[in-house]
Write a structure and sequence with these properties.
Strand order of the largest sheet: 1-2-3
Largest sheet: 3 strands, mixed
Low-confidence stretches: none
Shape: extended
Number of strands: 3
Radius of gyration: 15 Å
Distance between the termini: 48 Å
Strand content: 15-25%
Mean pLDDT: 85
Structural class: alpha+beta
Length: about 80
């Protein structure tokens, strides 16, 4: 008997802003001031990472010298 593995289903959030916005602004709006949805942020944008480090509980994922790096969440 072959067992099938169940795949995890991840929720996909959609943009809810009115009009046009930059990707950075949209991402920051989704995270909010306290990251209530407990989102991870994966980006190579240095400025976005700098801003995200000021928001509590946002784990950052990015590549540094071809190595996947996970910053711990801010306190």
């Amino acid at each position: 008997m072959i067992r099938k593995k169940k795949t995890k289903v991840f929720k996909r959030d959609s943009c809810v802003h009115a009009g046009s916005a930059t990707a950075r602004d949209c991402i920051l709006k989704m995270i909010g001031k306290k990251n209530g949805k407990k989102l991870f942020l994966a980006t190579q944008d240095k400025e976005l990472r700098k801003i995200a480090r000021t928001i509590p509980a946002v784990p950052l994922i990015y590549f540094k010298h071809n190595i996947l790096t996970l910053d711990p969440p801010t306190e």
